[in-house]
């Protein structure tokens, strides 16, 4: 058993926060990894040169992309609203930072006691994350309106329609998980699952949450706001160089955060069998490693969906939300209330 000095114990929340902050920085590197993973898989599936051939495993393609973004001419359309156009990427990245501080990226077990790795722990962290995620839509509208381009504006309004429709079932599903657990704290929700994951207790809720999350992130088949066949590139049409790069990067970090949420809310988080948690060495590394493995698998599933499902029309997207997912989410809510009462939550 590891003996912790007495003076260290009051500092454990601070140490945990610092470690969580370091891991948040690592997530930005993870976003680069997600970009490489998507380009690599896409190139392999489509037999394209570039991401599958440049450097060992295509790693140098990222360097080539970065050079292209940094050296591309920075253009601004005539009559663009400069204040909105210039500051929108900062707004989008702020949403990402605000979400990151509340999402735990793993946990360590010392003498069988769990210490989540999060910058901060809130009693209403689930609602906080949902609220901060919604800020992105303002950044997208700032880009579209500030660009003075009708295709960009049309893409932003499509984004509004999609997010309004899918935030409702997404929020109801999250509330269903919170009701069954009896807490809005995402750390407590992850810890409460043990080895009986919420995906088994609420399978309908998991399906609704995953589809709504894909739509919320704007991933195929829900990328109507930037469908190149109809809108050139939608809300991001007029962005070039690093402005485009920042918006692009924010979307990938959102994808990673979405994968974290799936692992935390439905796939058991970092929970491991008791004999692993009580082991002095495995308890330090296995829970976080297990959690990150689940996150990567979810991320690969999201990336793979891009090449497995065709893009929906905007009317099909709206119908799927209001006529299918919303009733299913309400049904799951009733089930969660009943199950929560039975389990004594």
UniProtKB/TrEMBL annotation:
Keywords linked to the UniProt accession: Cell membrane, Membrane, Oxidoreductase, Transmembrane, Transmembrane helix
Top-level class of the enzyme under EC nomenclature: oxidoreductase
Entry EC number(s): 1.5.98.3
Record field: transmembrane: 14-37, 90-113, 125-147, 168-189, 195-215, 252-272, 284-304, 325-344
Keyword presence, Transmembrane helix: yes
Gene Ontology CC entries for this record: plasma membrane
Name of the protein described by the UniProt record: F(420)H(2) dehydrogenase subunit H
């Amino acid at each position: 058993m590891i003996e912790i000095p007495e003076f260290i114990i009051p500092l454990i929340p601070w140490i945990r926060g610092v470690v969580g902050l370091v891991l948040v920085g690592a997530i930005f590197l993870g976003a680069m990894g997600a970009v490489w993973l998507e380009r690599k898989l896409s190139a392999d599936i489509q037999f394209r040169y570039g991401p599958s051939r440049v450097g060992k495993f295509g790693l140098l393609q990222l360097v080539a992309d970065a050079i292209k973004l940094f050296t591309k001419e920075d253009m601004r359309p005539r009559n663009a609203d400069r204040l909105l156009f210039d500051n929108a990427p900062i707004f989008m990245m702020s949403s990402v930072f605000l979400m990151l501080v509340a999402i735990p990226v793993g946990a360590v077990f010392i003498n069988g006691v769990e210490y989540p790795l999060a910058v901060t722990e809130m009693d209403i962290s689930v609602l906080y994350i949902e609220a901060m995620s919604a800020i992105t839509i303002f950044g997208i509208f700032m880009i579209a309106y500030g660009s003075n381009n009708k295709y960009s504006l049309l893409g932003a309004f499509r984004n509004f329609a999609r997010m309004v429709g899918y935030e409702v079932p997404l929020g109801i599903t999250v509330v269903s998980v919170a009701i069954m657990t009896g807490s809005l704290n995402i750390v407590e929700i992850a810890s409460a699952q043990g080895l009986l994951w919420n995906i088994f207790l609420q399978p309908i809720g998991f399906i609704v949450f995953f589809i709504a999350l894909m739509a919320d992130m704007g991933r195929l088949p829900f990328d109507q706001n930037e469908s190149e066949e109809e809108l050139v590139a939608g809300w991001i049409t007029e962005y070039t160089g690093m402005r485009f790069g920042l918006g692009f990067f924010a979307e990938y970090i959102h994808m990673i955060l979405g994968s974290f949420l799936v692992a935390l809310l439905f796939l058991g988080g970092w929970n491991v069998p008791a004999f692993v948690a009580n082991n002095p060495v495995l308890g330090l590394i296995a829970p976080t490693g297990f959690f990150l493995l689940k996150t990567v698998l979810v991320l690969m599933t999201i990336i793979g969906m891009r090449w497995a499902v065709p893009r929906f029309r905007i009317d099909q997207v709206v119908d799927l939300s209001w006529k299918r997912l919303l009733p299913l989410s309400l049904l799951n809510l009733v089930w969660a209330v009943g199950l929560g009462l039975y389990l004594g939550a």
